[in-house]
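Bench notes, bay 3.
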Amino acid sequence: MAQQGQTAARPRARRRARTERMPRVLRTSLLAGLGALLAGAAYLLAVRGEALILDLGAVSQRIFCF
């Protein structure tokens, strides 16, 4: 009898686990957006890397007044 109760509970747990996951479309779109953001950051570092570092230095001097 204990085995019947366990086997009956497993499909319900699988169904519940399947519905609690993030939908595939949402997960794919979030990963694509994150990938695009990281690709844009890598592009900016490759193209404007030195200028970005100099700008950060100038901004930090203005903020911290050192």
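Next record in the batch:
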Amino acid sequence: MAEQHVSLRPDNFSEGGGLIDDFDGKIADIRFIMTDYDGKIPSPVPCARVIFEIDGEEMEPSLYSIGGSDDFAPDESGMGIVKLKSKATLTKTSKFGMFMTSLIEAGFPLNKTEDDSIAYLIGTVGHFLRKAVEYKNMKKKSDNDREQTVLLCTKILQLPWDAEKTTAKKGGKGGKVVPKAVDEALAANIIGIIQGVLVQADGELPKKTLLSELFKNEDIKAMSADDKKAALKMASDDTWLKAQEEWTYDMGVLKMA
């Protein structure tokens, strides 16, 4: 039976039942994973793992709950969610639902969201603030105040496809994001891999499909953990993609030059 994706557009979510980390930063990576929250729960559940970058440095991953493991699971690429039972929609009261809704309310265009992938969010720069979570008629899961919060977007500073560079500051104060040095040998390797993927796709490929193909690529899988992370980060970076001469990149689509 073919996988049936769950809609990731906030306008398709159903209705479900300012403390710390005030910063400007970039969504350096986002994908769906299964996690047991470092052993805090007996069985892994699906969630969205978001890695924010501030002043050129990556933060520890932020996890956004989605729902139960009986209802949803990440797809093969990690960029989409498939339903396992009859439940067809994510809820607005899940932490992932709150996060996505906050992005739209902060200025991310709804018509640029996609049903079956969240890859388009990589590279988004915004202001993020942790806010308290309160559920009516529901008992607290924990007395830990931090666990009763969710990190949300309060303002979009730059959309992924914008050519202009935006200053990213921590706590509303700070300097420009300084790009890390790129390993030239690794860059040359990933360029060659992307060219191969483009050739197999008849010379044209949406970025979200490229990322999905790279996750399955045998040469990528054979890399060390650090090189794999760096290679996928390059392939996710719109600025890096636009700077290469081997292809053109515009509006989320790569084309062989």
